[in-house]
């Protein structure tokens, strides 16, 4: 059985590779390999021929970008006087040439991430269909899980929506009429084979746990990872050390949504042991950590052990909104966390802090106050435009409070788009907030 796994293009107004890796697809690849399949992999976001522009030693980069005509429902988006909808990733010729260069697969598996990036997955499926007629295609990933009914409008033969991969081999066997050599009984983050690693990357992502004990009204974590699962320290350490030795890569991005939960028994021993075994590893935390869980011990350890970049999810300085959206943090907890991190040796630029803009009912003045609070506390404000996500508690309110038909069209979930449906956020207000955050990030 030969399987081709594909990470599709991003279609968006802006995209940056901030330690982005299709980790779910990499787990799927290693699991199916474990079941005896031969695996081929195409990552539409990384070219084998031309490195991504602006590639930094730690793996961050821009993506190759081709401006394209937006779908008609996005025609009203003009940013700074320009239409900037683009396809990010390799060009289609490279994709087709990669497809041609591979042995014919028995099935193709395509992942998806953001709901509003679905055109990338749809285009991959269209190109695969044209070149590999009769080869079954499975579409999975986050968009497929959050917008399952919409995903049935793709040309895929099967929409895979389970978190547990153990049902996937049987589905593939039914679609292909072939048997996988090894029967896999179960799959979870604790017993999963370590994910597939690509040597050409400069970083790799690690997931030490899934789920989150909070239930923020704008977040889909609880829907995507109900219950949650924490891995054993030894397993995470073994994975990271093996991967670093095998690939020579020394930058690790932790993908956890709740990295600091139960830190004394979880992330602290993981980072301590990794640092003791491989002192030249560098760690990055692209997902916001919980401000209220930062302690002096964590701040000091992170700084000495090589945690280079930290992001914190403050989201808003408004205490009522903090409480009403799930109470994951308070302004006081945020100030304390930044204070501890600064005393441990971090600079403002290392402590990127998310300020949400465009939550239903939230005014630009509230966002400005959040940006200012982040700056005054010693962090670097990062503006994050609210993107409505299906199956979150805030979804229905977000749909009701927007003139845009977001329940019909996932393209309108795009953070660049949704905020422009809100009359409080004209272009001028959006740019003023963005410029203010950018200006304050540069200060000492
Ligand atoms: S704390 Fe973070 S991961 Fe947890 S529910 Fe809230 S936003 Fe999601």
Ligands bound to this protein structure: iron/sulfur cluster
The amount of beta strand, in percent, is 15-25%
| Spatial arrangement of strands, main beta sheet | 9-12-13-14-15-16
Q: How far is the first residue's CA from the last residue's CA?
A: 56 Å
Helix content: 25-40%
- Number of DSSP helices? 16
Name of the CATH homologous superfamily of the largest domain? Aldolase class I
CATH class of the largest domain: Alpha Beta
Query: How many beta strands in the DSSP annotation?
Result: 16
Mind summarizing the main beta sheet?
6 strands, parallel
Residue windows where pLDDT falls under 50 for at least 5 positions: none
Shape category: globular
Number of separate domains: 2
In round numbers, the mean pLDDT is 95
CATH architecture of the largest domain: Alpha-Beta Barrel
What class would the helix/strand composition place it in? alpha/beta
Estimated radius of gyration: 22 Å
CATH topology of the largest domain, by name, is TIM Barrel
Task: Describe this protein's structure.
- This protein folds into 2 domains: 2-176, Cobalamin-binding domain (Rossmann fold), CATH 3.40.50; 204-441, TIM Barrel (Alpha-Beta Barrel), CATH 3.20.20.70.
- It is of the alpha/beta class and 444 residues long.
- The model has no long low-confidence stretch (mean pLDDT 95).
- The strands form 4 sheets. The protein has a 6-stranded parallel β-sheet. It has a 5-stranded parallel β-sheet with strand order 3-1-6-7-8, with helices on both faces.
- The radius of gyration is 22 Å and the shape is globular.
- It has helices at 23-34, 92-101, 118-131, 142-146, 148-151, 168-176, 221-224, 233-247, 267-277, 296-305, 319-324, 331-344, 364-377, 395-400, 415-418, 427-442, and strands at residues 2-7, 10-12, 38-43, 65-67, 86-88, 107-110, 137-139, 158-159, 204-206, 209-210, 229-230, 251-254, 282-289, 307-315, 351-357, 380-385.
- Bound molecules: iron/sulfur cluster (SF4).
- Iron/sulfur cluster is lined by residues 212, 214-216, 219, 221, 257-258, 313, 326, 328.
